[in-house]
What we know:
Layout: H1 2-29, E1 49-56, H2 62-79, E2 83-84, H3 87-91, H4 93-118, H5 122-137, H6 141-161, H7 165-178, H8 191-206, E3 210-217, E4 222-225, E5 228-232, E6 235-240, E7 245-250, E8 257-261, E9 264-269, H9 276-288, H10 293-306, E10 310-317, E11 325-333, E12 339-347, H11 353-356, H12 358-366, E13 377-379, H13 386-422, H14 428-463, E14 470-472, H15 552-626
Parallel strand pairs: 1-2, 1-10, 3-9, 13-14
Antiparallel strand pairs: 3-6, 4-5, 4-7, 7-8, 10-11, 11-12
Amino acid sequence: MRRPFNRALHATLSGWLVGMLAMGPAAAQQQHVPLRLMPRTLPSATGPRVAVVAIPVDASLEGEALALAHWAEQAVARSGRLELVRLTDALDPQGASARQAKAVEGNAALKDGLKAYDELDTVKALQSFDKAVKDYEQADLSRAFPLLSRARVMKAATQVANGENKAAELEMRGVLAVDPRATFNPNFFPPEEVAFVEKERKAQLDGAQATLSVRTQPVAAQVFVDGAYRGVSPLALTGLTRADHYVTLVAPGYVVTEGRAREGESSFTLTKLPVQQRYAALVERIAKNPDDEERDKALQELGALAGVPQVLALVVRGGPGNAPLTVTGLRMDVADGHNQAYALGQVPRGDAMATGSEALLTGLVAQDAARVDGKPVKHFAGGGGVSRRTAGYVLLATGVALLAGGIYFGLEASSKADAFKTAPQGSTRAEDLKSTGKTYALVADIGVLAGLVSAGAGSYLAFYKKGGGSSSSSPPASTPPARAAPAREEKPMKEALPMPPPPPAAKTEPAPKANATSTPAPEQAPAKTPPPPAFEPPPEPPPAPPAKKLTRKEREAEAKRQREEAARLKREEEQRKKDEEAQRKQQEEAKRKADEEAKRKAEEDAKRKREEEKKRPKLDEDDLRNY
């Protein structure tokens, strides 16, 4: 009885062991890249394509505008109902396609490497992982960095399987230098290598005291370091590891620039795109006309230039010092200029911008505003409003009155001319009629001309609607975040990288040589599992708190405060222009005086030389006579 029992026990243990070996790869492949500072790319949507542009009214707010544009792009991608198109990629479609193609090639090479690793062909796997690393380095690393890190980890795992422990340790050290939180699955690394990884990770984190200063020319740019958004240049970073970090720079109108940078100061020169000049002209038009029809026309042209059906625009105004930014946001349909969403609000500066702008940005992407009677709704400061129409009526009435007065005085001048013809020539009455007639004729001409001008201007203001359609005449007010459309579910990112199973015979078979030329085994049928996505999605952030509803007094106080702030900014701008004009005049005066002084000295030198030349011949003649 004991022998059958032992056989049953052995069979059970063997089945359990086989099951564990079969489930190991699946369990390993369910692990993902750990979440870093910023999500690489948020999930795509099937709704309208939207590009985000932030326009600073003052050039000193360029950095704040770029930072706000980044958070707005995250809000668009999180909405689940709009498809984000980064403005830099929309203005450079060829460059964006090339970077995406490299990411796709990297995905294919990574998949081939995983398949070869499963088939124990570690030589081919190492070649595929190395190709994947090179392809990802030429892709957009602000999005593809997790995949680059994963490919490098698998490259190190393959080197360990090949017995190249020194090369594997160098690769692991390089991965941890730029990604200290990278995961090395124990299923692919023996205990001594896992211990090495943890020791190296601790050393990297303890020694992360390096500083890096990033500067860009000729404009500021969004800075991504090792795939994580870190701010806007010029930027000083601290707490970095001492390694060659991957730096990605993004600025609308310029080519996406990537490079490596170590501790210290690094300067990058951005390359202009062919459309940069036109893009800059459109942004300048919007900055000069942030609240009227010209703003929407320029945004429509910008949307056509980028090739997107919708544009999310953020007009940024600043207060004194560290005061919050005043942001006017609108999401426009490029076809007819209809404002799908409109909001006005305050956004904090600096590190608080990410959370402080969430309510405003969510309201701009949550839902679409309906058209009025089939006509587009637009938001201008007084565009077609009551005050404008009233002024038009007043000017029109004034013009009619002036025309009537001009006609009356013209008739009086004509009657004076007739009376002058019948009066005795040379008499006092004839002179009086002549003088009065000329005066009446002059008044009539002025009245008719002024009446025509006033009536024309009044008709334009009273009857011409700016932008056509049904422009909104209400003053801009903060649009509360409306009920958001249901966003699709997103899978949170796990803690470990997806890994294939380790080769069972790695320890028993001899390691292949590096210069082996054996033909790889024929490829089997493709794996049933789909290829890894180009970019890993981040966890969905917590929902924004509901906006507080303002009372009527609070709205009036806020509107009054904004008017006072606008008036104060206008006074400061006028004072700044006066100071600049005075400084310019002082510089011109100083330059003029310097030029006069230089001219006077030159004349004196020339005069002195002429006198010396005149004296020299006389001395020679006297010497000859004495001789």
